[in-house]
Amino acid sequence: MADSPNCDLRSLSPLQLFERVTEQGEKVRALKAGKAPKDEIDAAVRMLLSLKLSYKTTTGQDYQAGLPPKDLVLINNGTAKEEDEDLVDPWNVQTSNAKGVDYDKLIVRFGSSKIDTDLINRIERAIGQKPHHFLRRGIFFSHRDMDQVLDAYENKKPFYLYTGRGPSSQAMHVGHLIPFMFTKWLQEVFDVPLVIQLTDDEKYLWKDMTVEKAYEYARENAKDIIACGFDINKTFIFSDLDYLGTSAGFYKNIVKVQKHVTFNQVKGIFGFTDSDCIGKISFPAIQAAPSFSSSFPQIFNGKDNIQCLIPCAIDQDPYFRMTRDVAPRIGQPKPALLHSVFFPALQGAQTKMSASDPNSSIFLTDTPKQIKTKINKHAFSGGRDTIEEHRKYGGNCDVDVSFMYLTFFLEDDDRLEQLKQAYTSGELLTGELKKVLIETMQPLVAAHQERRKQVTDEIVKQFMTPRKLAFEF
Predict the structure, then answer these.
(1) What distance in Å separates the CA atoms of residue 245 and residue 450, rounded to the nearest whole number?
(2) Alpha-carbon distance 115 to 328, whole Å?
(3) What is the pTM of this model?
(4) How many of the other CB atoms lie within 10 Å of CB of 154?
(5) Which of 100, 243, 289, 346 is surrounded by the most beta carbons within 10 Å?
(6) For the chain, what are the domain ranges?
(7) Phi/psi of residue 347, each to 5°?
(8) What share of the chain in percent tops pLDDT 70?
(9) What is the pLDDT of residues 237-259, one digit of tens each?
(10) By percentage, how much of the chain surpasses pLDDT 90?
């Protein structure tokens, strides 16, 4: 989203329009207080009136200072406008559609941009190699300002990567690997620094666990993240409970964000209520802070103008839409984002994974036998009720979880297409498709477990020690 008054207001979400009106109102008051020239004040007032009109046209209500609109993107507390509306927020993903969330609608409601063929081709030209299969298959499907990141890269200007993990349990599942697999690829092809935030403070605030347990989970999850193969010389992993107390730059950015976001705004964005603890209300600023390079002076040599690119699942976007709205007001560049789809539960795409349900996914601690049993017993099928019907009518890849998992983890495009054609035609049975998935997942998880065994506490400590990385700024 451009910051200029000539920005296409129709492309903005209700909350973004609200923020623009608020920002313009502050500008008008500042001009008047500073006794600016009359024509400058008049131009600012005209812009304010135009913004207010756009806000009323979009939301059907007059702008009221301090009262942001109920964000249609989030549909907080399950109060959807329509029966078939998807519920998507940082803590819940619900849809009544067996195919999963309607991501085209979500793009429109979030006000992000679709990752189209032109952008994928541009990425390919920039890096000089075939794009990751997550991009080719639409697993990362939406973005904010990726074109600006490519502009910077093509002009030899630096950027960095930021992603994270909320350590809610000791064992991670294969769905948790998706952002880290993609982030590792981005780091390698663009050769840039990476910071990984472990939000153990968030999990303590939201879950029934002690601070000590949250921190323990963070360090255990760090081992799984490191086992993805990140370069220790280019990657800094940090626990909020650790790093926040040692970095003045990090805390200063948190305070700046906190000052520029009101209680009403976070209630509108995240659905907080008067009964929520104040820790929850202030937490979004902590997730925003790593978007700014000045939060890591040891990496960026104190520079505060290095743009950040955040690969994440789209349910995390509300945090960073808030961050992007605040960034210009605190003199920071807006972070860019790449959004992924949700990884489906074994039982179907209606909900996302639950670390508390061992049968909802394949966990990184599962044995080959457990993987086989879970897939055979729990993976939702798009096949027919009988073999005869399946042979005649074929299976439905759009709802079949085994095929969905293969789109994430089977890298061979030709093999995936063959499976799709065979299953859709009825040539391939559900049991045979599940067998392919079992044979794909067993070695993948086993290889991860072997790499994790090599990650010692000392290696974790090295990754999590604030330090200069292998880049000059």
Answers:
(1) 34
(2) 25
(3) 0.81
(4) 11
(5) 289
(6) 14-59, 97-345
(7) -75, -5
(8) 90
(9) 999 999 998 999 999 999 999 99
(10) 69
How many of the other CB atoms lie within 10 Å of CB of 78? 11
Inform me whether the pLDDT recorded for 79 exceeds 50: no
> Regarding predicted confidence, which is higher, 345 or 72?
345
Q: 8-19 burial, b if ≥16 CB within 10 A, otherwise e?
A: ebeebbbbbbbb
Over residues 201-212, mean pLDDT: 95
Structure tokens at 425: 């035609």
Strand partners, 87: 94
Residues in the chain: 473
Q: What is the pLDDT of residue 69?
A: 66
Q: What is the pLDDT of residues 380-416, one digit of tens each?
A: 999 998 999 999 999 999 999 999 999 999 999 999 9
Q: How far apart are alpha carbons 331 and 251 in whole angstroms?
A: 16
Quote the CA–CA distance of 361 and 270 in Å, as a whole number: 27
The CATH superfamily holding the domain 97-345 is HUPs (3.40.50.620)
**Could you tell me the CATH superfamily of domain 14-59?**
S15/NS1, RNA-binding (1.10.287.10)
Q: What is the dihedral of CA 243, 209, 272, 291, to 10 degrees?
A: 20
Q: How many CB atoms lie within 10 A of CB 87?
A: 18
CA 102 – CA 113 distance, rounded (Å): 15
The DSSP-derived string for 41-99 is HHHHHHHHHHHHHHHHHHHSS---TT-PPPPTTT-GGG--SSTTPPEESSS-EE-S-TT
